[in-house]
Design brief:
The protein is an alpha/beta fold. The protein folds into two domains: 35 residues; 139 residues, Alpha-Beta Complex (Protein-Tyrosine Phosphatase, Chain A), CATH 3.90.190.20. Helices cover 47% and strands 19% of the residues. It has a six-stranded mixed sheet with strand order 1-2-6-3-4-5, sandwiched between helices. It starts with 5 loop residues before the first helix and ends with a helix.
Length: 176
């Protein structure tokens, strides 16, 4: 009978598990790219405003970010425990120049991405995020609302996110 090194076997199993998780995430990401559901609200002062309120998980956010052209100012909701942020790090460092975040788990997002960004700001809500993002953004930038998690504490569905974003955008547009 051949001796099996348990440590080597455990490392192989962990490696295979990691490969399977990457493959699953890759397939999910490709599917989301095909089924993308973000909405271009308007181009305003040379900046694109995009509402991707249906992106209530990180894979959907990744798909949305990957499809944008130019630098992104990302408005994100942060739940109490935001997980798997490491898989976004490379994408954020390449495409996102600023994040405006609201919610209960801001510290985890700040710790994960602050070194990758020009600016990280804690905000109170979508309206404040749109206002600050509009002031910070330059012509050619994309302001993307892609929450990355559901918020059932305040919203019953992504339709409520959509209403809040559109209402805040209309107010912003009237002030300009």
């Amino acid at each position: 009978m051949k001796k099996v090194n348990v440590k080597v076997l455990k490392n192989r199993v962990e490696s295979l598990e990691a490969q399977l998780l990457r493959a699953r995430d890759s397939i999910a990401l490709e599917k989301l790219k095909i089924e993308s559901h973000f909405e271009l609200v308007e181009e305003f002062d040379g900046k694109l405003f995009i509402n991707d309120c249906n992106a209530i998980d990180l894979n959907a956010c990744m798909a949305s970010i990957e499809q944008q052209v130019g630098k992104i100012i990302w408005i994100k909701y942060v739940p109490p425990m935001d997980r798997d942020l490491d898989k976004l790090k490379n994408l954020v460092s390449k495409k996102v120049k600023a994040m405006f975040c609201f919610g209960e788990g801001i510290e985890s997002v700040y710790n994960s991405f602050s070194n990758e960004l020009e600016l990280f700001v804690k905000i109170e809500n979508i309206a404040e995020g749109l206002e600050f993002a509009n002031k910070y953004a330059q012509k050619g930038d994309t302001i993307l609302f892609s929450p990355g998690a559901p918020n059932y504490k305040f919203f019953e569905s992504s339709t409520d996110w959509n209403k809040e974003f559109n209402s805040a955008f209309l107010k912003l547009n009237k002030r300009a």
